[in-house]
Amino acid sequence: MSDTCTLTTLATPCASCPWRLDATAQDIPNFDLDLAEDLAATCPDERGMGPDIGASMFACHQSKEGRELACAGWMATVGHRHPGVRLAVAMRRLDPSALRSGAAWPSLHLNYQQVLEKLRATSPVDEPN
Questions:
Q1: Is the peptide bond prior to 106 cis by the omega test (within 30 degrees of 0)?
Q2: What is the pTM of this model?
Q3: Per-residue confidence at 3, pLDDT binned at 50, 70, 90?
Q4: Measured on CA atoms in the order 30, 13, 63, 115, is the torsion positive or negative?
Q5: CA angle 34, 16, 21 (to 5 degrees)
Q6: CA 82/CA 88 separation, integer angstroms
């Protein structure tokens, strides 16, 4: 993303946002547990450290390939910890209000460890052939 680009996010978490307490893996279209596990690199770890400089951002699963939007739930919960998000705010490519949940928002998980625990528990089981 160039310095002149605006970092785009949705105004609120979508209905199937994994950060929502009321959404499960089965609510997410084309859910992929391996992809969900890989997204841990976009978030602080269990010690509250990270993510690393250069880490990708957590895109909304409803984004179009090549035109990704940052996940609103991720942004409001842990986005402030991401170096790329902090840089975008400092360079005025992202309004800091995107880092806060709104009054009418659904309840969100506090960290990605909680999200992953829920996704693992609610992931559809592949049926044997």
A1: no
A2: 0.88
A3: very low
A4: negative
A5: 90
A6: 10
Task: Report helix, strand or coil for 129.
Answer: coil
Interval 105-114 mean pLDDT: 97
Beta-carbon neighbour count of residue 52 at 10 Å? 10
Could you give the CA distance from residue 6 to residue 114 in angstroms, rounded to a whole number? 30
Selection from 10, 30, 29, 43 nearest residue 115 by Cα: 43
Kindly write down the DSSP assignment for every residue of 18-63, as one continuous string: TTBTT--GGGSTT--HHHHHHGGGGS--TTS--PPTTPPP-B-TTS
Report the pLDDT value the prediction gives residue 31, as an integer from 0 to 100. Answer: 94
